[in-house]
Amino acid sequence: MSAPALTDFVLAHTSPVPVPLHSAVEAMDLWERTRHDQPPFWAFPWAGGQALARHVLDHADLVRGRKVFDLASGSGLVAIAAALAGAECVTANDIDPLALAAVELNAAANGVTVTTLGGDRLDGDAHAADVVLAGDVFYDAEITALVLPFLARAAARGALVLLGDPDRAHLPRDRFAAQARYEVPVPLTLESTETRSATVWRA
């Protein structure tokens, strides 16, 4: 799909919600329309991302004037929060081209600049970012095994690594320190509840 076609798809199947963020109403129907193996992670504000975004906005000093890399950005919620909090520059990375189109739309809706970066970047070092953010990335054992070394390398070179997670089964709690906990609204069709608790962790 071309970039305009990606943007048109996002606009056709989502609508802005108060964040403001383009969000879908029905998960399964949209998933079928994308014809992807993975759910449309970009179409919803996930619990871990919401908690992390709230934390960044409440503690703007964590990102203000710094280079930020948002891993598996999805809708761009966390990246946008970092930009609103005064980050020098923000890069949103996702492997799904539809996610990148959603990030661009959502950044524009919030009046901020976010650079999008496609493809799997887990072999890299987050482009020497000062802060690495990741919301809701421990939903699967295979993904966790790929993400952990990336985050460890970033922390080892001195980057601030912050994660948002709603108690997913694969979160290795012994490797992180809890910073704050938030109650956030979630899509009922995806989480089987209307609210979830999510913790912000620091590597």
TrEMBL record:
Does the keyword field hold Methyltransferase? yes
Determine the domain of life of the protein's source: Bacteria
Gene3D superfamilies to which the protein is assigned, alphabetical: Vaccinia Virus protein VP39 (3.40.50.150)
Q: Give yes or no: UniProt keyword Iron.
A: no
Keywords attached to this entry:
Methyltransferase, Transferase
Q: Which Pfam families match?
A: PrmA (PF06325)
Q: Which InterPro entries match?
A: Ribosomal_L11_MeTrfase_PrmA, SAM-dependent_MTases_sf
Gene Ontology molecular function, alphabetical: protein-lysine N-methyltransferase activity
> Which GO biological-process labels does this protein carry?
methylation
Name of the protein this chain belongs to: Predicted nicotinamide N-methyase
Instruction: Write down the species.
Output: Lentzea jiangxiensis
